[in-house]
Amino acid sequence: MLAARRNGQSTNVDALLPEMAPELRVKAESALKMLGSYGKALVAFSGGIDSTLVAYLAKLSLGDGAIAVTAESPSLPSSELEEAKELAKEIGIKHLVIKTEELEDPNYVANPANRCYFCKKELSIKLKQLAVELDYSFIVDGTNADDLHGHRPGAAALTEEGVKRPLADVGMTKPEIREISRVLGLPNFDKPSMPCLSSRVQYGEIITPERLTRIEKSENFIRSITGVMELRVRDHGNLARIEVGRDERQVFFNDDTLDKIAAALRQYGFTYVSLDIVGYRSGSMNEQSVTSSKSRLGSEN
């Protein structure tokens, strides 16, 4: 079993890490020192590789002063919650599950382009309430250096609420997080990113529990018969647009597979089912707004 533990009572962060590339060690040691300076901290723990690394490092540097906290909500696939529980157990960090209520917020339900802001705001507020109850002064999350670029309204909400981001602060990128996690033996070092189910819904389409459920069912079914790793079922109202990793697209070039997927997704509530031939790419829901902006600019010139 993998378990993050202090090396005796040593406060030497160098003794807590295995051999790794010098540039990675510098960043990992810096993150450990930063976490250690907090004394104790709650870790926003989704079970993704970023938050898993933070939880592992927090356990190394803070021991029992580190607590991983996972939010249970309709926008989190049930399989992800169970995986987070198992990961926390494997790391050896205390784990709590709290309920968030972003679907009670009309701003979130309306699904604007900054929807993530309202989700992270709700999460941050619930974490701060828990921190007060437990007498903890610090909350940390897995934001990495790459997350500080592009359309990231959720990061703004976390910053407003004072959530610390040790990985980003030491300049740790996603590829570096994966490599450090591999060296540390974290089991999900190569796990594809898994943002919340609401990220699959076209902006402007109302977020409902039923809509999130059909997305989760659709992705579970497709994975069960194809075994693909990188997958999104994008919800465009009555149209399901399936994105898979570019090197996995050939799995769908089979009449029987296509027929089964179409039948299942129509049963779940979609009228039309399509395969995006471009393949999976992060943030594809933002492409329509970018295209629209370019079109408006072109018409003005």
Characterize the structure shown.
This protein is α/β, with parallel strands linked by helices and 301 residues long. It folds into 2 domains: 13-184, HUPs (Rossmann fold, 3-Layer(aba) Sandwich), CATH 3.40.50; 197-300, GMP Synthetase, Chain A, domain 3. Helix content is 45%, strand content 12%. It has helices at residues 22-36, 49-62, 78-91, 106-109, 115-134, 153-160, 166-169, 174-184, 209-226, 255-267, 287-300; strands at residues 41-44, 66-72, 94-99, 139-140, 231-236, 239-244, 272-275. A 4-stranded parallel β-sheet has the order 3-2-1-4, with helices on both faces. The chain is globular, with a radius of gyration of 20 Å.
DSSP helix fraction = 40-55%
Number of domains: 2
CATH superfamily of the largest domain: HUPs
Low-confidence stretches: 6-10, 290-301
CA-based gyration radius: 20 Å
Task: List strands and helices in order, with pairings.
Blueprint: H1 22-36, E1 41-44, H2 49-62, E2 66-72, H3 78-91, E3 94-99, H4 106-109, H5 115-134, E4 139-140, H6 153-160, H7 166-169, H8 174-184, H9 209-226, E5 231-236, E6 239-244, H10 255-267, E7 272-275, H11 287-300
Parallel strand pairs: 1-2, 1-4, 2-3, 6-7
Antiparallel strand pairs: 5-6
Short description:
The chain has eleven helices and seven strands. The protein is α/β, with parallel strands linked by helices and 301 residues long. A four-stranded parallel beta sheet has the order 3-2-1-4, sandwiched between helices. It has a three-stranded mixed beta sheet with strand order 5-6-7, with helices on one face.
